[in-house]
Amino acid sequence: VKIESSDGDGFAITTGAAVSDEIPDWVPVYPGSEPANRGSMKTNDSINGNFTLSTGDPVAEVLEFYREQLKSIGFQVTVNTYSGAENEGAMINGVHEAENRSAIVVIGSDDGSTTVNVTYSSKK
What is the pTM of this model? Predict the structure, then answer.
C-alpha cells in the first residue's frame, strides 16, 4: 500500500511489498536476518520507518549487537530488560541529537525464536 499527497511533495506512507526505499545505512539490521513487515512514512520534515525480523540467536546476543552498533555511530543508548518464566526481552532506545535521529529496538523471545521490531526516525 502506498499513499501520497496529491502533489507528491507533502507526505508518503508505504507498507508491505510497496516499500522500495532502502533502510537507511545508519539503521542496523541483525546479521543473517531479513527485514520483513516494513513500513515507511516521509514528510517534508522527517523520514520514519520500521521493520521486524527473526533469528534463532538468544535475546542477550541480539541486545548486545544493537547496543554496540548504535553506540559505535554516536547514539546515546538506554536499555530496559525483562525476564519471566517463559520469555525474556529488551527495549533499546537510541538518540543521536547531532544528526536528529532516533531508533527504538524491541527484542523478545517466543518459542525458541527471537523477534526484533526496529523503529527509526530522522528529521531533515
Answer: 0.84
**Contact between 65 and 83 (Cβ < 8 Å):** no
Of 102, 100, 38, residue with least CA distance to 70: 102
- Helix (H/G/I), strand (E/B), else coil: 98: coil
Q: What tens-digit pLDDT sequence spans the chain (124 residues)?
A: 455 555 555 555 555 554 546 789 999 999 999 998 888 888 888 889 999 999 999 999 999 999 999 999 999 999 999 988 778 999 999 999 999 999 999 999 978 899 999 999 999 8
Identify the helix (H) or strand (E) that includes residue 70.
Answer: helix 59-72
Instruction: Tell me how far apart the alpha carbons of residues 51 and 32 are, in angstroms, rounded to a whole number.
Output: 15
For the chain, helix (H) and strand (E) counts, in that order, are 1, 8
With contact defined as beta carbons under 8 Å apart, do 95 and 102 qualify? yes
In sequence order, the β-bridge partners of residue 113 are 110
Strand order in the sheet with 88-96: 2-4, 11-15, 36-43, 46-55, 113-123, 101-110, 88-96, 76-83
